[in-house]
Amino acid sequence: MISNFTNSLELLEVAQKEQLYKKLLLQLKKDFELANVPINIPLDISPQELKSTIHEKIYFLIVEKFDKYLNLLYVVDISEKEVKKIAPTDAVDIASDVSFLLLKREWQKVWFKNKYSS
Questions:
Q1: Rounded distance between C-alpha atoms, residue 87 and residue 89, angstroms
Q2: How far apart are CA 93 and CA 87, in angstroms?
Q3: Which one in 23, 52, 54, 116 has a CA-CA gap of 20 to 30 Å to 41?
Q4: Residue 98 to residues 17, 18, 19, 32, 116: CA-CA distances in angstroms?
């Protein structure tokens, strides 16, 4: 069930309801590693903590390591068109919007793998 989520917590709650939350965490860890961006995501992390952790990491990357931020967007496969739709406000708000895009894309990957794997 791919939905039009309004925020990150709603997405994470659906992932838990669909029993795909752990797979989502593993996908996040995998893609952050592929992008060579270290992140600590324990498998027992709550949705609220996960949202905060990703937001903080994205904010740090935007402010301190922009090249790694761009690489992460590439590895996760976030649409450039979607990123360009984000209103240029302050870095905290941009990081929040990008975190949501990242979670939506990772959810798509997990949901499609689950639905179409044999």
A1: 6
A2: 9
A3: 116
A4: 24, 23, 24, 14, 27
Q: What is the number of other CB atoms lying within 10 angstroms of the CB of residue 55?
A: 20
In the chain, the amino acid numbered 45 is I
Cα 50 from chain centroid (whole Å): 9
**pLDDT tens digits for the chain (118 residues)?**
566 788 888 989 999 999 999 999 999 999 999 999 999 999 999 999 999 999 999 999 999 999 999 999 999 999 888 888 887 888 888 899 999 999 999 999 999 998 888 5
**Contact call for residues 47 and 20 (beta carbons, < 8 A):** no
Query: pTM of the prediction?
Result: 0.90
Q: Which amino acid is located at 50 in the chain?
A: L
> Where do the domains of the chain lie?
8-116
Dihedral (CA of 27, 28, 30, 35) sign: positive
